[in-house]
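> tool_call: predict_assembly(chains=two)
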Amino acid sequence: MSGEWPLWEIFIRGQHGLNHRHVGSLHAPDAEMAVKHARDVYTRRNEGVSIWVVRSAAITASSPSEKGPLFEPSNSKVYRHPTFFDIPEDVGKM
Amino acid sequence: MEAVVDLDAALFEGLCRLGDSTLVLGHRVSEWCGHAPVLEEDIALANMALDLIGQTQLWLGLAGEVEGKGRDADALAFRRDVWEFRNLLLVERPNGDFGQTLMRQFLFDAWHQPMLKALEGSNDARIAEIAAKAGREVAYHLERSADLVIRLGDGTEESHKRMQTALDKLWPYTGEMLTSDETDRALAEAGIMAAPDSIRPTWESLVGEVLDEATLTAPEGAYLHKGGKQGTHSEHLGHMLATMQWLQRAYPDATW
């Protein structure tokens, strides 16, 4: 039976967090039920104040086989990290 | 002076009616744990069962306090026999199929939610407080059960048939929660609890609306069973209690 239901990816915004974070996936017949299921499955311990659901099929993912060309070039470019500035004392922790 | 004593006895009775109904339904729903048709429903049902058991602790805890004989919620739940239980007959009905469980839940939730709403206005602050806390949980129970009854009633031919069968089976057990007896009336007159018959208009319009949308038809002129809240139960409750209470019966005062 559950095989007939599409898969949904669940994003939850935590009590204190700013962004919705991916927490997992579940099966549901439609978006409304996916929200209800997400509430029951992923917010039992007071984890969230907002839920997003999206059909897993609607997500386009990068291909693992392209990992090299996609990500490796940035490995050698340390200057992209903002670590070359002197931060004044009174700014405090960044 | 005598009236005060009577009112305390009525209050104990009234609190047991609430607490026993949530206890028995909570236990019934928990029987699905590990058996629901899909994982997501399994968790949803377990959540709801835990909500109901949590509410039971509050209602029966207060009942024990009011009674003043040193019985706490556990003593009331695990050390009373079937004729001392005051739950509605509806909630002790066996789970049946998933449709029957859902229909039972909806018919109860449609009463439970407005009842708690009314109890929030109790002049007993302890009752108002419990009702407010439970009300937030039950609002979701009702939203969920109403939605599923509509989806399955107005679903496939098979799901419609099962929901209609469930409704026909359970309808005769809905009269009791909407009818007041002497205890109910005494508590209502004292402003402590809402009279069950005052919930009837809300229940009827809510249930009517949902059943319409679910394309289901309530049976007409069905015989309405009563007696649960006075302690006259069907044979099903004894079996349920045997399962629920066996550990405390076999090993009294056993703890983790």
